[in-house]
Amino acid sequence: MRTVFLASALLSVTLANAALTGRPLIPLRGGAAEIGLPPAHVLERGGYTPVVKQTRDLEDALLLVKSTFEASLKKEANLQRVSAPMFVDKRSGFNDNLNGIERPASFSPRDFDKLTLEVPFSLAKWKRWALHYYEMPDWQGLVTDFRGLRCDDDVDFTHSLYVDQFDWEKRIPADARTVETLQDTVKSIYKAIYETEQAVSKQFSYQAILPKEIHFASTDEMWESHPDASPKERENFLCEKYGAVFLMGIGGNKPDGRIRHDGRAPDYDDWITPRPDGGTGLNGDILVWHPVLKQSFELSSMGIRVNPEVLDKQLELCNAMDRKEQIWHKMLMDGTIPQSIGGGIGQSRLCQFMLRCVHIGEVQYGWYHPEAVKTCKEKGIKLLGLGTRADVAVPGL
Fold first, then answer.
1. Nearest to 47 by CA among 380, 387, 384, 382
2. Cα-based distances in Å from 11 to 32, 152, 242, 368
3. How confident is the model over 369-390, as pLDDT tens digits?
4. Which tens digit of pLDDT belongs to each residue from 193-240?
5. CB environment 264-300: b (16+ within 10 A), e (fewer)
6. In what order do the strands lie in the sheet with 106-107?
């Protein structure tokens, strides 16, 4: 009975996640797309040749990408590296709720069975508290080497259960919650991405493709110009044309009640504040064009964070007013937690783009559909630690 209940619960969560995020449901059986394989053109004979061919050389390449980017990020965005938690107390409200339906990986310490600790989905909330804890002044921030788990995330060639990202946050004055602050910060983050590609492309002798400047667009204008396109198709139009795009205004509902481009939690990014261009939301995603996958590729989600007024409105819109009783939310409402802008840059995503890889499993250890692992091996796509005798297959799949 418990097995049936868990299976039903998991299906409900997965279906809800697909509805909220706009991502396709990935079942355990089916075709190439359904089991999380890269696009068909990559799987064709001669469709993909890795930039780094030897596994040991790959480890050096991963270190080069991450160390180069972190050094540039700290310089360009005025950030200091700090330590990060591996788990937080469930009662604190410090965990990122994502879309509010995903299950966190959790456990109870020995001898404290009534206490639940959760592995964070991200440090979106913890970082704002950390700005207060480290007494960061205005216009200075922090960055962490975050590692987490997302048990209910899609698993495919760009998504994994394992999350590694440069989680960063910068303190700003209350009157700096503006589009100008958002765009200036995006430019500093993008400069670090651009400089990293310049360094990595020279090291591995491939052509750098990122433009020197990032293009700014909004989900509102893309909805008007491409009303019949899916969110992913709109991203593809933009990225193929401009190479690198910051797509503003993600989260909340459109006038017809549907999710505006993608889901966002109500208690970190501001997705309701009106902008001068007529749209709403002081947040967005940094997207680039992946030349091998031939599609848009998200590197970062970021934005100006909620203030007490915006938090109250977004919690009400999401029917989540009960969160105001949690410790973190009380600290924000009483002004203890400062105003800020922040985001996360996926480390494995960054490496996948910089090394022109077609599957995220090439740059991180993870779990993927066994049939996808088998196909990748047959097509010469080497997933770290998988497709070998040490890899244990799941019976019946």
1. 380
2. 21, 10, 38, 18
3. 999 999 999 999 999 998 665 5
4. 999 999 999 999 999 999 999 999 999 899 889 989 999 999 999 999
5. bbbbbbbbbbebeeebbbbbbbbbbbbebbebbbbbb
6. 88-89, 117-118, 106-107
- What is the model's pLDDT at position 256? 56
Q: How many whole angstroms separate alpha carbon 226 and alpha carbon 65?
A: 35
Map 81-144 to HEC letters.
Answer: ECCCCCCEEHHHCCCCCCCCCCCCCEECCCCCCCCCEECCCCCHHHHHHHHHHCCCCCCCEEEE
Q: What is the pLDDT of residues 226-236, one digit of tens each?
A: 989 999 999 99
Q: Which of 319, 307, 220, 219 lies closest to 269 in space, CA to CA?
A: 307
- Find where tokens 């922040």 sit: 342
What integer is the mean pLDDT of 327-354?
A: 96
- What gap in Å lies between CA 7 and CA 73, rounded to an integer? 42
Residues tagged active-site: 96, 150, 165, 285, 298, 301
Residue 208, class by beta-carbon neighbours within 10 Å (0-12 exposed, 13-18 middle, 19+ buried)?
A: middle
Distance CA 5, CA 27 (A): 18
The two tokens of residue 109 are 């310490």
Estimate to the nearest angstrom the gap between the alpha carbon of 282 and the chain centroid. 17
Supply the pLDDT for residue 302.
96
